[in-house]
Amino acid sequence: MAEPLAPLPTPPRDRRPLLGYAMVWTAAILFAVNGTVSKVILSSGISSVELTQIRSTGAFVGFALVVLLTAPRRFRVGRRELRFLIVFGVTGVAFVQWLYFVSIHRLPIGIALLIQYVAPLLVALFVRLVLGRKVRRRIWVALALALAGLGLVVEVWSTGLQLDAVGLAAALGGAVAYAAYILMAEYGVRRRDPVSLSAYGFGFAALFWLVVRPPWLFPANRVDDSVSLLGNLERFEAPVWLLLLFVVVVGTMITFGLVVTALRHLPATRVGIVAMLEPVVASVVAWAWLGESLGAWQLAGGSVVLAGILLAQTAR
């Protein structure tokens, strides 16, 4: 367990920050679209646990095939690294998804997202207090702006003060797990390539879900069903298997792959801040697709979040 907390190896000299920012922005946008697609899938009767299990297993198969077809030697792993990869897969991959679904089931989704995106603050605190690395003052200002903007986006004052205790605990746990994912991924890409790191992460996450929910309990008969796309696209239908394929390939493999690869070019603190674009884009996607309201507070909050992200990108 000590290895994930060890000092990071020297960063590579071929860092390209602009490429890293482009990767995280693209991932945040795709994550936001994936959220609405997942909501459509959940309306078909597939549960959040089953959807998470499909994401983990499908992504593992996809990443593993890429490694096997391109460079099978990348699967080589030592005993010490194997322990790190198990923790990365269970804590940083499986728990992030599971705790997120639990929190949005028991809390307003805006509040759940707001709490989860305390993660970049936890990353900055860990980097400063535990790893002893300097965090520039403008990063703290950017974090404050981004969190304040998210509060405006979700209109945190309109939910009242009575929050479900289990949902609140899950959201806080999700924030910790997400912070751990970013930090462990930053550590992992110093030792191996992003694709094999993702393959191992989702592989151990898939094993975790295999134990929690055996595959014979999965409602396979629902995969061939067609489901309404809801909202403004309600008159259209799509097969569940096609939506699941989107979630696995676009919403999981491409998005997680982009975030992990971006950590080769950017520090974890900035990746976490830029990823906070997701709730803003998710609000826009929900407005355009599902017909959910997008008022003045959401627009103002989105502008504040973007200001925080742009400020973080100016930090050397």
Strand order of the largest sheet: 1-2
Which radius of gyration do the C-alpha atoms yield?
19 Å
DSSP, total strands: 2
Overall 3D shape: globular
Order of helices and strands: HHHHHHHHEEHHHH
Largest sheet: 2 strands, antiparallel
Beta-strand level of the residues, as a percent range?
A: under 5%
Q: Which percent bin holds the helix content?
A: 55-70%
Count of domains: 1
Poorly predicted runs: 1-11
| Oligomeric state | single chain
Count the DSSP helices.
12
Structural class: mainly alpha
Mean of pLDDT: 84
Distance between the termini: 32 Å
Keywords:
single chain, 316 residues, mainly alpha, globular, disordered N terminus
What's the short story on this structure?
The chain has 316 residues and is mainly alpha-helical.
Summarize the structure in words.
The chain is mostly helical and 316 residues long. The protein has one domain. 69% of the residues lie in helices and 2% in strands. The chain has twelve helices and two strands; from the N terminus they run H-H-H-H-H-H-H-H-E-E-H-H-H-H. It has helices at residues 17-42, 48-70, 79-106, 109-116, 119-129, 137-154, 165-188, 194-212, 240-262, 268-274, 277-290, 296-313, and strands spanning 226-228, 237-239. Strands 1-2 form a two-stranded antiparallel sheet. It starts with 16 loop residues before the first helix and ends with a helix. The relative contact order is 0.21.
